[in-house]
Amino acid sequence: MRELGRRSEAADHPFKRPVAAPGSLARSPVPVIHSVPLILAEQVGQRNVITAACPAALALGLTPGMAVTQARALVPDIDIRPADPAADQAVLDSLALHAVRHWTPTAAASGADGLWLDLTGAAHLHGGEERFCRRLVSFCRRFGFTARVAVAGRPGAAHALARFGRQSVTSIPNGSEAQALAPLPPAALRLTPDALTAAARFGLDRIADLLPLPRGPLARRLGIASVRRLDEALGRVPEPIVPVVPEETPVARRRLLEPIGTAEAIEHVIGDLLGDMILTLQERGLGARTLLLILERIDGSEQRIAIGTSRPSRDASHLARLFHLRIEKIDPGDGIETMRLAATRTDPLSATTLAASLAGDDAPADVATLVDQLAGRVGDAALFTAAPVESDVPERAVCRASPLAAPTGWPAWRRPVRLLRRPEPLIGVLALLPDAPPRRFTWRGHVHAVVAGDGPERIHGEWWRRDGELWAVRDYFRVEDDTGARFWLFRRGDGVDASTGDLSWYLHGLFG
Amino acid sequence: MSTNLQRHDALALLRESMGEMRGGETAVLPFGIDALDKRLAEGGLVLGGLHEVSAATPTLTDDAAATLFSVGIAARAAAGSGRRVLWALTRFDLYAPGLEQAGLDPATLLFVEAKDDKDVLAVMEDGLRHGGLASVVGEVKRADMVATRRLQLAAMSGGTPALLARRWRKAGVSPLTELSAAMTRWRIACAPSERLPAPGVGRARWTVELARQRGGPPFTLELEACDDTGRLALPAAPLDRETAPARATARAA
Fold first, then answer.
1. Does some domain include residue A367?
2. Chain A within 8 Å of B82 (Cβ-Cβ)?
3. Alpha carbon A133 to its chain's center
4. Is the pLDDT at A12 greater than 60, yes or no?
5. Judged by CB atoms within 8 Å, which residues 178-197 of B form the interface with A?
6. What's the superkingdom here (chain B) (predicted)?
7. Last residue of a domain, one of A346, A378, A393
């Protein structure tokens, strides 16, 4: 990097062990050695190719880009696992966030395998560039990563040197990019595959071959994008780094002049905190899903209460109402001196239109606010809608879904309005086999004489769930007795084949 | 003369305000059956009011009929408005496919399974005061005068009909013997359906008894149960009942 301003190198600690010479890092052993060569494979078009290989595999000649079948033919005993680019990217992103928080304010992920760190004005905080690079490499080694670091005046040059340079730690002075890049292959310049093929066809094997060429013919042969890449690496065109910005939890805080203990005072402060919080959320275009209120008491202990909303919300009165339900759970002790409000979970929430209410079209009030309020009263799990499940077995056809879901309905077979939790066995059933409704039955000690019946509706067991249901059959009947009561009964078995059921009768539900 | 005029104005003003109040009160949900609507004091169920429904006997079948009666009212209140129906209860044994067949589809219904009757009443009150629901249904075993009056006030303030299904606590003591501030109190029982000429169960019938209403006498009617949009129907005239099978057999022959 450029040497700007004063460099204040930290003095070495007299009792710490002397740091090793920079060259020794390259010779240090690779931290993870696999007993069986490990490769990661990915499907590219019709081929399954290697995307990464461990050092043991590399030593055996299994290079990235090779087909997995060929690798298997070369080395039979090999550990192949699927590549997970999303997880790789997540690790890289978290590393970039760590860099922003600890090393330099400007950092970003570069491609799928690298990080940009802008050390301008930040290197002296870590004891100089060289010392920073050493610490960076050992930091990565502790996590099992092999790091290669290059420090240059231009992102393009650093990118090339880190990937194609000879040493694991390279540092070049400002202005010597052309000299340092000259022996590297053109691939170091981040050219497109087409441009690389063209360069190989023209015999341009090194960047040194590109440098003396006139720009016009070069642009015609390799494309204008390639010339731009070369300019970026040499510092003729600026290439800014777009830094990642760490997301911070929106927090509002109030220190109180005097400790408070009454519910009214606490509610007042919550109102103030919500006002602050909503301004913050509005600036960021967010709505709160979970709010955590932390009350610090004067004896040093903390009280925490949390509320959740079913949709992102910035409605102060609604959020205050949710807190109002919880205030009685606060134990103020001798008094509360500080209150903090943190939006621990947020979702994007943009402005909403007022068109409907301006036109006088009276849209119904949002149910989500009611859902939050009721969840605060009876708990989250107690609110639900009934959603269909693809099953013909009646007790499995319904599941509970989130209260704001909009489930679709069921097929139009006649179903009772109340279903017994367990089918109740009937005794004294008189029925003709195989498919007539019963004439009379006894349920809960009462004899019912049936005057009319519909059925059977045959429901087969779900053999994919249990072995016992492989042949099981239920024949459902809807019957009415002489007093007008309507029942939903079933018989186990189809009345012909004994393996479908034992012909016992049950009552399962009640029609009105 | 002038005093007379003033009195006249004052009376007109009073009448106007009375009319406004009454107009605000008497948004009703008619059943669509003349025989029923004419006997109701307001010509239908008052939307901003509490209505109680109970089974005539402690049997589960009558209870199911009473439930379906409430479902039908809730379904007609919600029809086409895009509003939802809140159903609060303590033990969830409703079968949602059956509710859908009486007109309440699952996207409309929002269930709350509360711990006890007190919570059910509190949840109902929250739902009624919210004002964005088509109706609020609650199932309780016990609700005293204070609780029902609170519900009635909440229903008035939110303009949302409240349906309180009162379940039997012990045999022999009808839940409707307890005092209540409800606008109407209904008692529902299953009745034998019309025999079909072919084997099968006809459209269900209920004995619908209006046990008490504000501003009107009680009455009893036999009605056909909810169809898939929650509408009740008047059965064919009793005189026709004897001849119906004969006609049907004639048609079949």
1. no
2. yes
3. 32
4. no
5. 188-193, 195-196
6. Bacteria
7. A346
Q: Which helix (H) or strand (E) holds A318?
A: helix A316-326
Q: Write out chain A residues lying below 8 Å of B61, CB-based.
A: 485-487, 510-512
Domain boundary assignment for chain B:
28-252
Instruction: Give A396's pLDDT tier (boundaries 50, 70, 90).
Output: very high
- pLDDT for residue A29: 44
**Is the Cβ pair A509, B192 closer than 8 Å?**
no
- Residues 6 or more apart in contact with residue B37 via CB below 8 angstroms: B30, B31, B43, B44
Q: Please enumerate in sequence order all residues whose Cβ is within 8 A of that of A43, keeping only pairs 6 or more positions apart, or say none.
A: none
CA-based nearest distance A456→chain B, Å: 11
Which among A167, A155, A210 is positioned nearest to A26, based on CA atoms? A167
A67: DSSP letter: B
Tell me, what amino acid is at A484? Answer: G
Domain, as residue range, for A19: 1-147
H/E element holding A344?
strand A336-348
Structure tokens, A97? 């966030």
Residue A7 and residue A143 in one domain: yes
* CATH of residue A257: 3.30.1490.100
Q: What is the pLDDT of residues B96-117, one digit of tens each?
A: 999 999 999 999 999 999 999 9
B199 in contact with chain A, both atoms CB, cutoff 8 A: yes
Strand partners, A290: A308, A345
Considering the domain architecture, whether residues A6 and A134 belong to the same structural domain is answered as yes
Both tokens of A206, joined, read 């090194």
Tell which of A346, A367, A399 closes a domain. A346
Task: Please identify which residue in the block is written with the tokens 């978290």.
Answer: A94
pLDDT at A88 over 70: yes
B28-252: CATH topology is Rossmann fold (3.40.50)
